[in-house]
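Quick entry between incubations.
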Amino acid sequence: MSTLIPALHSRNLNWRNLGELEKTKFLRFCRGQNLRHLFSELLLPNEVHPVIKFFEKRFHTNIRGTIFDTSGLTDKVKLLPFPQKPLRKSLLLEACDADAFRKWLSLHRTDAARFKPLDAIVLRHTSRFNRRFEAGATPNSRVLFRFNLTNGPPTHMAGQIGKLFAYDNSVFAIVQPFKTLSQTEQEYDYLRHLPPAAGFLIRAELDQNILAVPFTSILSHIATNLVFLPGFPSQYLHVIPLN
Amino acid sequence: MLKTKLPTWFAPAPKHPGEVSWGKFKADEWKAFCTVNLPITLTRLWGSKPKSSRQYQMLQNFLHLVTAVTVANKRTISADDIKIYETHMRNYLKGFLELYPFANLSPYQHLSMHFAEHLRRWGPTHSWRCFTFERYNGILQHLPSNNRFGEHPDSCPSLSQSKLAESR
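Done. Structure below.
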């Protein structure tokens, strides 16, 4: 070690102390991280959006380890230019998807009547947290998402993304949730008394009731494993959310 | 493990963990193995056992650790998350001492109890973990060592002896 210390001292640091680097890191980087979290919630007024765009341009999430690491907390999708080309017919919103979205609009916005399905631009895939999210039955479409019930607290549900679309400068997802366990099944759920890292059980069937949620409500991908409960004919999925 | 469906970005753990032919685990593989594969496998094997059985308590103890680590690695973190981290880490260490009375707590296990304070002060670990240390590693790796790094004390016995003599 005695040979290393003089060697470290001899490094060219532009006449600055080595501790200055750490000070800068904690001041700038952690401040930036907090800003990212604030921007990602999308609760700020529209006037702030140009600032978010500037922030994203200046501190791009792909600069690993030099600016703020790859946390990608800002919803990059919202800032991407939306496709302008005419879309194929198969990529239009279907009637049931549009109905689900209208339901969400009526709960959260006052301009629900203004929505027309043709205004929505359907996307094949999109990314958040530097992860790729796809629509359809692919491994990248199974997600954990947050859903606000009317007059109730937000609940976390597992589901499969059926469609992704952009409307009014925001991205939304049509999600088909998995069926939850019945009262009887819950009694045989061996995960319910274990710490959260154990995951949870759901039925391996998709619910017919589809939901429209903002893309910011998609929390993470999930790992799923097919399991059986003794005495029950149905198949179940052991779900572990991936942070 | 073959039945587990994962997103494409997630690096899966080796299919035959523990076998020599698969080599050592990389960091991502350890993460996948401990946070996905082991919880699925162990809960299936031990999750239905009586709560008083040793296997069930070992499973619970392990899952407290995994929960704490998962919360500590979240990309966004709140004051409630930090409390959850503290609770699970304390439960893990308490259970560890009860289940394995002949094992000693390591310094890392002790330091984990101070980690919540770091999270409170500096936020999610993604913005501050290892960054500075990686930079120091880079500086050390770029030092000219004539490709004989670590051999210095042996290659200069006269210097070592003279320093030893001075110290006497």
